[in-house]
Amino acid sequence: MRTLLCSLIAGFGALLLTPSLAAACSCAPPPPPAQALEAAGVVFEGTVVGIPAAPAENAPPAFGPVEYRFNVARSWKGNPGMEARVQTRASSAACGRRYTKGETYIIYGYITEEGNISDSLCSRTRT
To answer: I need a labelling partner for 9 at 20 to 30 A (CA). Which of 21, 49, 79, 115 fits?
Structure first.
């Protein structure tokens, strides 16, 4: 009985010390604009003209990439073109950012290995 009790206590303690698999996005404060400009792959002002379709009501939470379309008004770094497509994660728990159709943002994005523009909650992007 004593061995069983010790095993149960040890097992419960191990559960308490095991890190959780679910973690929320955590970001350091963004750097000043000049430093963020230097670190970014592309910086532009754009208005959201296309947003991802809403998932079905009973769909599981998605953490994959989604894409937003922006009409570009001007750029400070990189060449986003007249219409930029910006990828981010679908969930804010995975540091994904949600943009509002019709809103104008200054995007501090980075260029992925595939050559796409990507952004996250941790960038300096602002309305």
So the answer is: 21
Q: For residue 80, what are its two tokens?
A: 């986003």
| pLDDT on residue 58 | 61
Burial of 52 (0-12, 13-18, 19+ CB in 10 A): middle
Cβ-based burial of 99 (10 A; exposed 0-12, middle 13-18, buried ≥19): buried
Beta-ladder partners of 32: none
CA distance 41 to 78: 6
pLDDT in tens, 33-65: 999 999 999 999 999 999 987 665 665 666 788
Is the C-alpha dihedral spanning 101, 114, 61, 119 positive or negative? negative
In sign, the C-alpha dihedral spanning 13, 17, 21, 23 is positive
Is residue 3 pLDDT above 60, yes or no? no
C-alpha distances (whole Å) from 52 to each of 44, 85, 99 are: 20, 11, 10
Question: According to the model, what pLDDT value does residue 5 have?
Answer: 43
Q: Please state, for a pLDDT cut of 90, what percent of the chain lies above it.
A: 65
